[in-house]
Amino acid sequence: TGLAARIERAGMYTASCVVPGATGEGAALTVRPGLPATLVIARSPDMPTYALGASVDIQATVSDRYGNRIPDAMVTYTSSPSAAVAGSLVTFEREGRYTVTVRVGGMTEGGRALVQTTSLVVDSSGPAIECVGPAHGAMVNAAPGSTVTFQARLADTTGIRGVTINGRSATVAGNGTVST
Fold first, then answer.
1. What is the tens place of the pLDDT at every residue in 96-110?
2. What are all long-range contacts of 143-152, with beta carbons under 8 Å and residues at least 24 apart?
3. Could you tell me if 115 and 39 are in contact, meaning their C-beta atoms sit under 8 angstroms apart?
4. Residue 159: CA atoms inside 13 Å, Cβ hemisphere, count?
5. Rounded-to-integer distance, Cα 10 and Cα 109, Å
6. Which of 65, 78, 110, 114 is 20 to 30 Å from 155 by CA-CA measure?
7. What is the C-alpha to C-alpha distance for residues 32 and 69, in angstroms, rounded to an integer?
8. pLDDT tens-digit readout, 71-82
9. Could you tell me the pTM of the whole model?
């Protein structure tokens, strides 16, 4: 009578009092996790770039304020732009940059929104190179030793980091064109 216990770790316990001369089994006590207080997400596999058609498992760990995991927390997954979402598995059918948002539903500790995002890139092909000038199939008449300028337009989902033409570094303009 008049005793209290504070148990912060979820699990099964046996509560008993030790009184000289008394015997007893104790009482079974089940401590369940509290309301969701934290959300941590991770990608599996965690890669800088994913192939077209790749599936990524966005693993969500929801815990209460004491660090007890809540395996049955209500968690939703959305993707922008849209991708195929089945539970925590997200499959990408188009190349591009994606943001996957994970949200805990229902009541939470302090009524706070528990939301995390992860950004990823889906890019299965190399850069696109389009010859701009001279036009495809065009005839170029030039005197021996004169200069002829060739121009191309480059594009890639992950961006263009550098270009070399005949072993020499070339500068890409803001609109994706390069000339030599």
1. 899 999 999 999 999
2. 149/179, 149/180, 150/179, 150/180, 151/177, 151/178, 151/179, 152/177, 152/178, 152/179
3. yes
4. 6
5. 16
6. 78
7. 10
8. 999 999 999 999
9. 0.69
